[in-house]
Each structure stands twice: as structure tokens, then as C-alpha cells.
User: Fold this.
Amino acid sequence: MSASTTTPRKLPGSLETNRQLDRWLRFDRDGTVTIFPGKVEIGQGIHTVLVQMVAEELDIALERVRLALADTSYSPNEGMTSGSLSTQQSGIALRYAAAEARDLLMQRAAAKLGASLEQLTVRDGTITARSGGSVTYWELASADLLKREATAEVAPKMPEQHSVVGMNVQRLDIPGKITGKPSYVQDMELPDMLHGRIARPPGPGARLAALDVAEIEAMPGVTAVVRDGVFIGVIAVREEQAIRAQRRILRSAQWEEQPTLPANSDPRYLLDLESEDEVISERVNDAAAAAATRLEAEFSRPHIAHASLAPSCAVALFQGGKYTVWTHSQGIFPLRGDLAKVLGSAENDIVVIHAEGAGCYGHNGADDVALDAALLARAVPGRAVRVQWMREDEFAWEPFGSPMVVKMSAALDAKGNIASWTHDVWSHAHSTRPGSKDGANLLAGWHLEKPVAAARPGNPPLPGGGSHRNAIPLYEFPGQRITNHLIRKAPLRTSALRSLGAHVNVFAIESFMDELAVAANADPVEFRLRHLKDPRARAVIETVAAKAGWKPREAGDGTRGRGLAFARYKNAGCYVAVIVEIEVGNEVRVKRVFAAVDAGQAINPDGIRNQTEGGIIQTVSWTLKERVGFNRERVTTLTWDDYPILTFGEAPEVEVTLVNRPELPPLGAGEGAQGPTGAAIANAIYNALGVRLRDMPFTREKLISALA
Amino acid sequence: MSFDQPSGLSVRDGARGAAPGHFMTLTITVNGSTHSVAAEGETPLLYVLRNDLKLKGARFGCGTGLCGACMVIIDGKAVPSCDVPVSAVAGKSITTIEGLGDIGRLHPLQQAFVDEQAAQCGYCASGIIMTAKALLDANPRPTDTEVREALEHNLCRCGTHHRILRAIRRAVEGEGAK
Assistant:
């Protein structure tokens, strides 16, 4: 249809890059519809949202919609499931594809029933003419129906017509998970499957001096030991045998460790390294020179672990020269590309199939373990190998959320308004996922005798950004200069952790806004509103303030206090404002959190609430407790004792209010709360005690030294 | 290698004999059914449940009893199955999440998790439900503090804590109303 000389029409969402309708939908003879999203379930509930959107457009019951797991052999290539974009990209594509499919079916029905389109109604896939005849989608849907390029000319339903979208539909996956059904790649089992474990070096750069492979091979149940450079894997008949062999290797191998890591794990080591500096926003206010009051402050976060509850896992099978890999990767196509580079295979000889894992919160060990499994499977052709990392492997080798340092300065004019503002952020790269043009971003590839080098670390580009995500404030200041200082060379691998740089940039901006409000003798809510024009931004702040019963200039009592913070994720996604209530005893406790969220049109309101609540609670944990430790040679936080996270005893009550905008496009809501929550905690501590904590995590030690 | 043979343990030479690997046939009772399993006595119960009995509801999280993803109930107590050798549980009554209820006939705790949508990724959920079950069996009307204390060895990384607490409260109130 599209001649090579004409520019193809721009299509909505991921239809733009996957334009055939049958890539997205299939009508099956049994009265169901199968959808083929390229985005994957990572505990965020996206599958339920997609099913809702399709059921709505097709006017069929939710139960009729089936969902095919993402698979490189048939799924549309939607890149990564990241950045809180699945609803916008996959959801919108499916919405338009379903609307168009419905229209095609209605036209066929009109012809068959001898009626006009206006005389037809649809109920659960059965089309009925006013004159009496009826026919079902499935009777009309011949194989050629969707073999065509999408036009996106059929308008989806208007919000007021919605009966499924906007409802609190229960998540489809929960009953299976809570009754113990095999639900995760960790639960997969193939016939004659073997178990593998990897014995990693003790730290980055360590050299293997000696290993008695024969001793390991002689252990009970051991099928093979795979050694290639400093990559050492073991395959055994039973899982516990593989684990025992791994532990024996860890005890018996002799390593020469290298002092490659910074002497001090304080994130300010970043300031001593060479950086690439880029001014990403600049507006000069000449009047600022005369400003009455100037403030400066410096904020930081250490390395943070994704710390998925489930160590990463994959199953691989090598047969007839081809690989099949089951993985909880967030990007099956990019992973396939990097696997091909390391394995020396053609991409067409590798099938990558998504199977759910536990929540990942960004780029964790999921991709790396897929290569581990493939490397072991290659040693035992015809036998599937399941590899799961041990807890210590995950803590030592997952890519971490980058340490960050932010320096702020601002000037207030005589009226107490912000006249100028600077924000300088130092960070490593926030994206080292697979899928780069140069190199391969898979851990084992770097450990092989003939290594496949890593790609050059980088950031997603603005406007989303990586380390500079949310560095540009949404507030409107007469003067501002925002500078990103990227330190590409990282002693420990860093990559995407939920919200990327937004956690720290918003922490710095929103802490500093409170400091400036104090200097201007203003209430924090009023101070923000006077610098903020966006009505949706103002609405979430006003909503959360009303919900929490915020009183202008309310003061803490020396033990308890409350703090507010706000951000629009990526300055383009959902709006979140939070008010945090804390209590300080021996340490800081977050007792209660209020939040208001505007994620545009809410497809599944309870899903948005659930994601926001989770984002808040996880960020309470990051902000109060978390820090990856290391010495010159290796990571030293290897267990839940070394790296404690928030417990049930410490978890706050959370109340999320949704500001629904059915008339506006839906926005992802998985990462909106991280930035505001960190800052609101700092603001609440100041409100309670009059001390300002600027270096995460806010541990008892930090509190004591701040109060001293 | 040797081990103490707990009372009630039925031991005979396993499929591979007594030599390397120390395989033996062990009899264990899970969810009311008796199973014979050929494994080494020191094998953590978790792997026997998952790989021999194909009960995948107890999940590996840390291997050291710190996260609770693998909780099962042994003689009324919630225990991390990653940290218990299978030889130590012969003759005891083991309950896993599969022994509570199933889709269509959910246990009240499972139903409460559905009603409250108390999961994100759900990996921690079966272990938490088992801990809660053991608590409610011993103390049908726990306070909020008692529930939180009982869950001190269960971790959730998605931040579903307060929904989970609400679900357990709902189950408590539902039971109390009967």
C-alpha cells in the first residue's frame, strides 16, 4: 500500500513501529481474542490494563481476551518495558487496533445481515441488526481479516462510552500466584531439565589463579563444569547439587583481587572523576544579581540495589544449533541481539520468550542470567538448563542505581520569590541495558576468555533523560541553569533503577524548595503554587493538601512532623504530590503518607493506586535505609542482613487519591512517586526537628550527627 | 558425612546406594499426603517441595531464612523451607500454600488477598500467607502490632505492605464474624 516514495502515516503508540493489525490481535475459533503485546508483566499489572482496553473497544467480556506471552518469534518489537510507557505505547496501539478490527467486523456484519451500520449493535461479540438477524465476531473473522496495515482512522470510544476502562478490574494474575501455581520463570520445568549455578569472581577485575575443575566434576550429580575465562558455571542433576558445587568452587578457587573500587563509598567520589558537562536548560535573569538572599545546598544518594525478592533466573535449551531462552528480561528483542553477539549466533537462531519474574524495578540481573543459562545449555545440547542466581550473586553483580550528587543554588528577590536557580547533577550512566549498537551489555560476556566488551554507558536522551531526568524543574523561574555532569566510567556497573535520576533530582529540587520557603518565610504549599502555572500540577498539590488537612505553616512538635513534595514524572508523565508524616524516636519512622496522582485517563484506578503505594513504600525504604557497601575489591553488602529494606513493622499507612482525567491520554504511573517521597521525608524531618538531612539514607547515625 | 536421624524418619538405602551423594528414601507428609522422595538428607526442604513434589508455591528468595518467600507450616509453625533439611521433617506435618485452597475454593486468607488486591509481583505472597495462617491458627484475633511482628521475617520489595496488612485484617474480621 505504501509506495516507497511516500512517508507512511504516523500511527499512534507502538502501531507506529509495528503496523500490521494481525501483529496485535487474533480472533480464535473458540470465541476468544488473543492479544500480542510486546510489553511484559513485571508486577505492575499491565496485562490486566491491556485486556481492559481491548475488551472495551471490542465490546466483549474480559474473559474472552487472552494474552500471548511476549516471544521474539511472533510478538511486535516494542523495545523495553520501561519508563512507565506501556499504557501509552502498547495500550494505545491495542486500543486503535481493536477499534479498527471492530469496524471491519461491523462492515462485514452489515453486508451479511443486509443492514446499515447504524442498525447494528454489539454485545459481547455478537452483532445484532435491528431487524433481528445476528452474527458473531468469530463467524465473521476469516484469516484475512487483520492481514492489513493499520490506518488508525477508526476513532476509539469516547470516555463517556466506557464501561470497562476506568473500572477497578481485579488483576488477572493474582489468584494463580496466591494459590502457588507455577507463575514465574523460576517455577518453569522442562523434561530432563538440569540445574545450573554460576561461581562468579569475588569482585570486578579479579583474576583466577587456580581452580581444580576435576574435583568439582567428581562431585555427586555434577554433569558439567563450564569454564571460559573467569566465567565458571556448573551444571548438575539436582538443584541442591548445583548449589553445593558452586559453593565448593567459591571456597576452593584462588583469585587475585584488584583494588578497582573507590576508597570511600561516599557518593562524592563522583566529584573527583572526569565528567562530560552539558548545560541542558538555561535562562538568564539579569535582575537576579540584585537578589537579597542566596542559598546553596548539596544532596546525595549512594548506590542502591534493585534487590528483587527473587534472584534472577532463566531457562535455556540448545538444540540443533539453535537456542531457546525463557527470561524475565524487560526487553526480549534487545536481549536477543546481545545474546547473538556473545554466543556468536545469528539472531534468527535464538528465540527469546518472556516468562514473568518477581518485580525488577529496572535493569537487574534478568538479562545477565539469560546469557548464563545459554552458555551452560550450550555445554549440554538437547537438555534444558535452569539457572538461578543465589542471593549473594544478585546483590554483588546486579547493575546498581547510580550514586548521585546534586548541588543547588538559588536567589530570592525582595518579595521572597525565586529569581534564579541552578542545579548541577553528577552521576554515572542510567542505562546500560542490552540493545546498544556497540558491544554487548551482558555480564558473562565480559568474563569470557575472549570477552565481548560492554557498550559505552549512557543516558536515555532528553526530554525523558537518565541522570538528568527531572533535573529541569517544572516551576517557572525567571532565571535558571541546569547542568548535567555525566561520569561514564563507573567502578561498579550502574543502570536503570525505577525513576532513574528523578529520585535524586526531585529529592534535591523539592528539599531545596522547602529551604527556600523557610528563607522566604512562606508556607511550603503556597510557595510552590506561586511558582507553578500548570493547572494539573497545582491540582495534585491542592488535592493532597486538602486530603491531609494541611495547615498553612504547620509546625512539627520536636518528634512528629509533616513534609510535602511534588513532581511531574519526566516533566511529561504522571503528576504526583505527597505529604509524609514522620515520627522520630531512635530513628526516623514514616508513619503515614498521603498522595494525589493525576495519570490522565485512569484505565484501572486501583492499579494506579497500587503502583503509587508501592512506589511510595519502596522509596521510604531507599531513603531511610538503603546503601550498597563496598571496599576497594568487592561489594560487601551480600545478604538481607547487610542490605536491610523496609519491614512490615516499619511500613507506613498510605492513602492515594486519584485525580482522574478521562478526557486526557492515559499516563504510566509506576515511577511518579519516587522523587516526591524522598523529598517529603526530608521536609518532614526538618518540620519535626529543624534539621535538614541531605545525604541519603537517613539512618540513625545521620540523624545523630545532624542533631549534634 | 553423617547426620542425626530424627525420630520417625524412615530411612533405607536410596536409589543410588549409600555412597557418594548419600541418597536415601525419605518419607514426608505434605498437605495430608505421604510422599517418598530420594534425596540427600541435608537437602533443604524447599528443593524437595519444588523439584520432587512439583509444589512451586514456596519460592526461593535468599536460602538463609531471611526473606520468607519459602515459608511453609511445619507442625503448626511457620518455617522457612530453604533453611530446614528434609531429613529433619520426616514424620512431621507440612503444609504449603497449595494445601490451603485453590482457585474456586480459596482459603479465607487467599480470598482476602484477592479482595484487597494485595499483590504487585506476588513473589512474596505465598510465604506471607503461610506466616499469616500460622499466626491466625494460634491467635485468631491478633492486633495490628502482632500481625506486623509475625511478618518480621517476610520481606516484600514491591511495597505492598499496607495492602497485605489490610488483607490479613480483613481475613481476621471475616473469621471473627462467623
Q: What stands out?
A: The radius of gyration of chain A is 27 Å. Chain A touches chain B through 64 residues (CB under 8 Å). The longest helix of chain A spans residues 86-113. The first strand of chain A starts at residue 25 and ends at 28.
